[in-house]
C-alpha cells in the first residue's frame, strides 16, 4: 500500500464552488438531477459543500470501498445516526472490531448452500401470489413485489412467514421512506410524518419481539438463529436492530429492484419474452433473467448513493481531501456514465451475457463492494432472477400509464406509479 498524502490542497471544483446553502437546497429538491449535473459539469471529484465531496470515477470508488478503515470509515467512533431510524446496533451501522464480530456472526446464514432453499421458497411464493390474480386485473406492481419479497425474506431471515404481521413491517418501511425522501423537521417535532413514524416503529418492535419469542433452535441456519443461539446471546436491542435492518433492507431493496425490472421489461417486448421463456420447463433457466436484473439495477440502483468519511487525508483525482470529508459515491451517477456503458440510458440486458459487463470493476456497484459489501448480495440477485422468471412464465405484466412512472430517492430508490394489467400466459409450468 502506498503512503497516504498528508497535506490537503485546494478544494475540487463544484456547483457554486461548494459554498452556501443553495447546493443543499438543490440536492433536497432533486438529488438525482443535482448529482448528475454536478458530475457532468465539474468532473469526477466534485465539491458539494465544504465537507461533502462526490466521487464519480471507478478508480476512486474502488479505493474507498476496499479501504479497511485505515483512511475512510462508514461511521466515525462515537457517532450515531441521527433521526432515530438508523438501528445503531446493527452490523451495517457498526465499525471496526465490533463490525467484524457482528459480520462474522451473520455470514453463515447467507452462505451459498442456502440458495437452493431460497429459490424453492421464491417459486412457491410466486405461485401462491399469482393464484390470487385473474386475467385482466390491474395491480400495483411495487405492492405485489413487496408482498413477495416480504414472504421470502422473512422465511430466509427468521425461518417463518410473518403472515398479517408483514403489513406492520411494510408500514414501518413506508414511514421511514417517506421520512427520508423529503426535507423534514427534527423527529421530536410532532408533525404527522414524525407521529406516523413513531407509531410504526413501536408496532415494529412488537413484531420483532414476537419473532424472538417464537424462535425455535435451528442450529444457526437462519440469521435469527445465528443471533439467538450465539454464546452469549446479544441483548434484545441488538437482535431487534439486526432483524429490523435485515428484514427491511432485504425486503424493500429487492422489491424495488423487481419493480424496476418489470417496468423495464414492460417496455422491451423481446427481453420480456426471453425472461418468460427461461422460466418454463426446458427454458434457459435464469441466465437471461440474471442479466436483465443486473441491467435494471444499473439503470435504477436501489442503493443510489452511499457515503464514507475520511479519517486521514485521501487523494482522489489529483486532489487531497482532508480528514472529516464525507465522500459520496452515487450508483445512479456512475452506472449511467457513457465512459463505462455504451448507450447508458438504454435497457440492454445483453451487455451482461457471455462474460460481458462494465469496462471497470467499480463502474457497477449496486451492492457496494469490498469487505463492507452487502452480505446478502448473492441471495438478493438469485431471488430476483427466480421471481422474475417464475412469474413471467405464468403471467405477463402489461404496463399502464408508464409515462407517469418516476423514481423517488429515499433510503432506497423507490419506483412510483408502476401499475400493470395481468395477462395470463397460455403455458403455465407446474409448481
At a glance:
The chain has 431 residues and is of the alpha+beta class. Helices cover 45% and strands 11% of the residues.
Give short descriptive properties of this protein.
single chain, 431 residues, alpha+beta, five-stranded mixed β-sheet, three-stranded antiparallel β-sheet, 14 helices, 12 strands, 45% helix, globular
What does the secondary structure layout of this molecule look like, with pairings?
Blueprint: H1 22-29, H2 31-42, E1 45-49, E2 52-55, H3 58-66, E3 72-73, H4 96-106, H5 115-130, E4 138-140, H6 141-158, H7 165-180, H8 192-214, H9 223-228, H10 236-266, H11 269-278, H12 287-299, E5 306-310, E6 314-316, E7 319-321, E8 326-329, H13 331-335, H14 377-394, E9 395-400, E10 406-409, E11 413-416, E12 419-424
Parallel strand pairs: 2-8
Antiparallel strand pairs: 1-2, 3-5, 4-12, 5-8, 6-7, 9-12, 10-11
Helix pairs in contact: 1-2, 5-6, 5-14, 6-10, 7-8, 8-10, 10-12, 10-14, 11-12, 11-14, 12-14
How would you sum up this structure, described in words?
The structure is a single chain. With 431 residues, the protein is α+β, with helices and mostly antiparallel strands. The protein contains 14 helices and twelve strands. The strands form four sheets. The protein has a five-stranded mixed β-sheet with strand order 1-2-8-5-3. It has a three-stranded antiparallel β-sheet with strand order 4-12-9. A hairpin with a 3-residue loop joins strand 10 (406-409) and strand 11. Helix 8 (192-214) crosses helix 10 (236-266) and helix 11 (269-278) packs across helix 12. The longest helix has 31 residues, at 236-266. It is globular. It starts with 21 loop residues before the first helix and ends in a 7-residue tail after the last strand. The model has no long low-confidence stretch (mean pLDDT 88).
